[in-house]
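Form 12-C: Joint structure prediction
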Amino acid sequence: MNASTRCVLPSDAPADGRAVRRRAIKPLQKGQQTRCAIVEAALGLATQIGLEGLSIGALAALMHMSKSGVFAHFGSREELQVSVVREYHVRFEAEVFYPALSAPRGLPRLRALFDNWMQRTSVEIDSGCIYISGAIEFEERAGPVREALAASVNAWLAALRHAVGLAVAQGHLDAATDGEQMAFEMHALILALHYEARFLRHHDALRRTRSAFEGLVQRHANAAFVRVDALASA
Amino acid sequence: MNASTRCVLPSDAPADGRAVRRRAIKPLQKGQQTRCAIVEAALGLATQIGLEGLSIGALAALMHMSKSGVFAHFGSREELQVSVVREYHVRFEAEVFYPALSAPRGLPRLRALFDNWMQRTSVEIDSGCIYISGAIEFEERAGPVREALAASVNAWLAALRHAVGLAVAQGHLDAATDGEQMAFEMHALILALHYEARFLRHHDALRRTRSAFEGLVQRHANAAFVRVDALASA
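Section 2 - Result
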């Protein structure tokens, strides 16, 4: 995954004080600051009304800028949309991926990745996930916005598969575990959490997601490791 | 589930000759015929561009009617959208729910329900599912369209839970099986199938869905039934 950040500002640090990776602090040029502020506003708008709802005009009004002022930073609406997808990806990594790296390699890290993902999906119950809404908006449209979205999601699924592979290598999961299948099933649970909590407002969706993930881990757990783990915690 | 049909016409009968429930055939009034034709066109449009993309104007153009002609059948855009949701639900039931009732009660019927659902989701890979796109469009909006959508999906999830309960009652699934949890996990798999096949274009999504469902069934299978089943098919 690409660790470079673009516009992650201090205000994005999670309240619990987890470290957020950002580029070495150096003052942004004025132009970059404005561009970041526009992307920030656009991201807020996109999580509420969708990427397709973004328009240079609406953004100019929101930023108290002229349309040509916004155009000076983004040559087109499409370029603005792609920048929003990239910024969303950076924040997703900062909240879900990087904090999990401090957990020990193997099953603990895989659990941390899923926990952070669940956590973010729960938070988004009040704001929206552009990986999910964007997939609907762009499923039938070719072009750079769709490509940027699909590349982000594919990179994340690859990171999950890699984490499953490490858990196998560490002897925590059974050698026969299919990383692709496990990542697919984890993705399925998050999609259902989002759908059932956000749209159907089923209050037990988070508990169901947790329970299903636990079942998934248990099915693939290396029996020898489970015994050692039980002894260690006894 | 509500078995009444509204506009299911002979042309909706599946090509493989499965029976489609429809009301006792009697000639529709001219006004009803027109209404049905409008709903049919609106449903086609909604599966491509979303329920929110529907407008009386676009529909009037598509139907070679005046806007006031369409308005005569649907007092508002919202009423049209609700009619589309109901029609979608009727077709979903006709393709997914009713054909499964011919499978023996218990695990065979549960399998048939999931198979038909997977089948429909695969077909929709070229057209779109308004239960999924509509959930995104209406997640933050109150009102009758959202209510109609959520009621349809909840009715379907209740039917799945009921089918799990019957499989437990028949001794096919373990008595400890939690129907709500199993329905949640089946829903999760269909959402992932839709996302990964349709948006990410992963060609193995159907195989992964099938494999995960098989795992789900095996985990909950009543050990005694599995032995009897194996003997019977030996």
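Section 3 - Comments
Residues 89 and 152 of chain A are 6 Å apart (CA to CA). Chain A is about 65% helix and 0% strand.
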